[in-house]
Amino acid sequence: AQRVTQPEKLLSVFKGAPVELKCNYSYSGSPELFWYVQYSRQRLQLLLRHISRESIKGFTADLNKGETSFHLKKPFAQEEDSAMYYCALQSTGGSYIPTFGRGTSLIVHP
Amino acid sequence: KAGVTQTPRYLIKTRGQQVTLSCSPISGHRSVSWYQQTPGQGLQFLFEYFSETQRNKGNFPGRFSGRQFSNSRSEMNVSTLELGDSALYLCASSGGSGANVLTFGAGSRLTVL
Q: I need a labelling partner for A6 at 20 to 30 A (CA). Which of A86, B69, B72, B107 fits?
């Protein structure tokens, strides 16, 4: 069975500090990994996906198949990064069923 | 282009009643999926429809059902409501060049009393 684990429910940092939101997954095949973000009073939206290999709002995430991880990183956190972050996995063959982690709430203090 | 639209945004029901939620996907998106979001369980997949057919179903009881119409609009129905069904129900659509990328609606907040 596929599973996504986000070990931290809450991550609190100061502005300018580095941020790393952890995501580990279990899946027997080659998954597609995503980070979705939900800002206060806004809809859940895509932040980035591993196949794009791009930086969005200063965030990057590298898929590490050996460690089955897809951690989200940003070198210098900004107050506007405060939000709920969800890691998600989708299978790439056959079954569509997406699996989400429980989410990590990031709070960036001024 | 218009985003994913969910109606109603808020509703209150009592135990034993049934509820129908509606979702209009982004134009051109043929896949619509539904999720239940609660503080304790996070986001849980309910089911996914593509071209009026249910392609995948999550681990929810048969009280939860859905359908998709020829214009890709989708509805989900919950019968015999229980207190534990209180949640935010999210709909997402996907398709086109970003086939696996989900675009979410604002959700329908259901409270069961």
A: B107
Per-residue pLDDT tens digits for A51-104: 887 888 999 998 998 999 999 999 999 999 999 999 999 877 656 678 999 999
Residue-wise over A2-28: b if at least 16 C-beta within 10 A, else e?
bebebebeebebeeeeebebbbbbebe
Write down the mean pLDDT value for chain A. 92
Q: CA dist B29 to A43, B40, B46, B107, Å?
A: 18, 30, 18, 18
To test the contact with chain A by mutation, choose from B23, B30, B90, B100 the residue with the greatest count of A C-beta atoms within 10 A, namely B100
Average pLDDT score, chain B: 93
* SS3 readout for A7-63: CCCEEEEECCCCEEECCEEECCCCCEEEEEEECCCCCCEEEEECCCCCCECCEEECC
How much is the pLDDT for A28?
A: 81
Shortest CA gap B22–chain A (Å): 17
pLDDT at B25 over 70: yes
Token pair of A46 as six digits: 């895509």
The span from the CA of A31 to the CA of A47, in Å, is: 17
